[in-house]
Specification:
Length: 149
């Protein structure tokens, strides 16, 4: 059941069930993924992955949860929101003042604290994933975190 996905988007592909981003067992193939805030929240991000050196969607999601995707799509969007959160910034400042500053990849793991859930649709190749992503973005009119291209 996909209560937060429009019927138009549902009709575009066979979507997986929603699962927590952290620990998601994502397929190796290219495809498109949707992220939402919380278990039943709105879709906040639409992304895609091509073949990624044979790792496809799994490689993309693992980069996000490893903290190594600070300047890439969803990772950047979550970090932007973390940097606007005074409590999160105060915690980082306290770490610096105590002489234990967090490494950049640690900041990147802010994504794992964002309570994100993902679902995905597998595609035949990266170009098909790119087209599907564009079609989903055109249909979904929610307040997304995606940056204009």
């Amino acid at each position: 059941m996909h209560p937060v996905i429009s019927q138009g988007v549902l009709a575009l592909a066979a979507w997986s069930e929603w699962v927590p981003l952290v620990g998601a067992e994502v397929r190796w193939w290219p495809g498109v993924y949707l992220a939402r805030r919380g278990q039943n929240g709105p879709i906040v991000y639409v992304g895609m992955s091509g073949e990624r050196q044979g790792e496809g969607l799994r490689g993309r999601i693992r980069r996000y949860t490893s903290g190594k995707a600070l300047a890439s799509g969803l990772g950047e969007a979550v970090l932007d929101r973390a940097l606007a959160d005074l409590d999160w910034l105060r915690e980082r400042l306290a770490e610096v003042e105590s002489g234990q500053p967090m490494r950049a990849t640690g900041w990147g793991t802010a994504l794992t604290c964002a309570d994100l859930y993902v679902c995905w649709a597998v595609t035949a190749d990266g170009e098909t994933a790119r087209v599907l992503e564009e079609r989903v973005l055109a249909l979904e009119s929610v307040d997304r975190w995606n940056r204009a291209r």
